[in-house]
Amino acid sequence: MNYLAHFHLADQLAGSGSVEQQQGLMIGALLGDYVKGPLRGDYPANWETGIWLHRRIDALTDRHPLVQECLQLLPEAYRRFGGIMLDVCFDHCLANRWQDFDQRELTDFSQHCYKQVLPHSDRYPQLASRQIGILSRHNVLSMMTDWQRVEQMLAGIGSRLRVSNPLAECGPSLYQNLADIDTRFQELYPALVAQLTTELAAR
Predict the structure, then answer these.
(1) Rg of the chain (C-alpha set)
(2) Coil, strand or helix: which one is 165?
(3) pLDDT per position as a tens digit, 48-80
(4) CB 3.0-4.6 Å disulfide test: which of 62, 114, 143, 168 passes with 155?
(5) What whole-number distance in Å separates Cα of residue 125 and Cα of residue 34?
(6) Domain boundaries, position 14
């Protein structure tokens, strides 16, 4: 899952909790990519819960049989980076099926994310602060219905990796398999919500 799915899962799982809890999970949805190592109270507890949630989403997704099926759809040469490809592709699937999972407009939810996360950006790791600035400035979350945006995002990720990778050229192959990936996403996403709801309540 990439930014849109992480923010949406955090928002869904916050439910009717306090404003602080809701915001903390949303902030953690961003920081999970940028804060490494054990969580030892360097950030507010509700932020660290959000970081834990981000990591748990990643772990469950990476190991899920439906994701493994999606990986097998990709050319063998792409599979080393298939997790990254699918993360961004899943955001596209979520955006295109938004009304199946949320009653709000995607544009309204996107603005909600920026309003929750931007105010504390001076306390984030530098790269996280920079990233939320980019997401909000270009309204990236609202644009994930556009396949061209998916390809641009993959190319951007690929350009930041220190190893040779196919992310700038994988778009056509990924698109060829989009229907099959989307079918699996429709089953995967509710399953994640159900499991994470149980796990978060037990913390």
Answers:
(1) 16
(2) coil
(3) 999 999 999 999 999 999 999 999 999 999 999
(4) 168
(5) 7
(6) 3-201
CB 141 within 8 A of CB 116: no
CA nearest to 114, candidates 11, 192, 196: 11
| Tokens 């400035």, residue located | 137
Structural domains counted in the chain = 1
Task: Give 119's DSSP letter.
Answer: G
The segments of the chain whose pLDDT lies below 70 read: 16
Size (the chain), residues? 203
Contact between 113 and 28 under an 8 Å Cβ cutoff? The reply is no
- Tokens standing for 68? 């493994």
DSSP code at position 2: -
How far is the C-alpha of 163 from the C-alpha of 52, rounded, in Å?
A: 28
